[in-house]
């Protein structure tokens, strides 16, 4: 019989039948994933109702745009960073600020400021504690990098991000800063809170079934770029958060937890609208030399991947 298969015969047909050469890399990856899924269905005795419930879950996940949450929540984003860290160690590439996951909420094209800016400008109702973060962008030799772009974004006091939250203005709490001749940058905002994944929807359903929480500790995202230097995607954490060592996205890095100076005098910060003591953190970003033009691309991770 030509059209009756065993499991092994069906898997072989799925992975080998084609009418054109196709893409060898895509064929390699899909064959591995399909094979692993075939074996999982057989080993775990996955029933038809369970399989189709999973298909429905994936359909709903895409429909509500939560794939970026689930890749982080199941550890894939951090896994990719771990693999890059391991590759750097094997290649003897040391130094530089630690990378951290980008997450799914980056938006390109935020307003650009020279040396300093206010993320919280034009955001009425935001009552978080005033916060200034400042420092320099340096190369691996400790030299200041003039003209670097520090792209920064974080959530509002409700744990929501502009562009994805219709109640916020475009580019709210999103800015870019061009470093000055000394490589310095600084910005004013407020200490952002931690937040949780949406309480309903496919990600929340899976996490409930797994017995896991969906909380992220307070953090601020960065994309730091400069010609000839390796693009840095990272985020820093605000100390003291309950979930700093239990981030659902596994994104906390020990070297990226800020130190906060409290009750800093306002002198010297009038240009940021500071007129009373505030909270400050000083943090330098150190960029490695780019091995090629691709490593110095100013694009965020998803934009780099899809072109």
Structural write-up:
The structure is a single chain. This protein is of the alpha/beta class. It has two domains: 1-46, no CATH class; 70-306, Protocatechuate 3,4-Dioxygenase, subunit A (Sandwich). The protein is 27% helix and 20% strand. The chain contains seven helices and 13 strands.
The residue-averaged pLDDT reads: 95
Number of domains: 2
User: How large is the radius of gyration?
Assistant: 23 Å
Shape: globular
**Biggest sheet character:** 6 strands, mixed
Taking pLDDT < 50 over at least 5 consecutive residues as the criterion, the unreliable ranges are none
Distance between the termini: 46 Å
Notable characteristics:
307 residues, alpha/beta, Protocatechuate 3,4-Dioxygenase, subunit A, 6-stranded mixed sheet, 5-stranded mixed sheet, 7 helices, globular
Task: Summarize it.
The chain is built from seven helices and 13 strands. The protein has 307 residues and is of the alpha/beta class.
Task: Describe the secondary structure blueprint for this structure.
Blueprint: H1 7-16, H2 24-43, H3 48-63, H4 67-73, H5 76-91, E1 112-114, E2 116-118, E3 130-139, E4 149-153, E5 174-178, E6 184-190, E7 195-196, H6 202-210, E8 215-216, E9 219-225, E10 232-237, E11 261-264, E12 278-282, E13 285-287, H7 301-306
Parallel strand pairs: 1-5, 2-6, 3-12, 3-13
Antiparallel strand pairs: 3-6, 4-5, 4-9, 7-8, 9-10, 11-12
Helix pairs in contact: 1-2
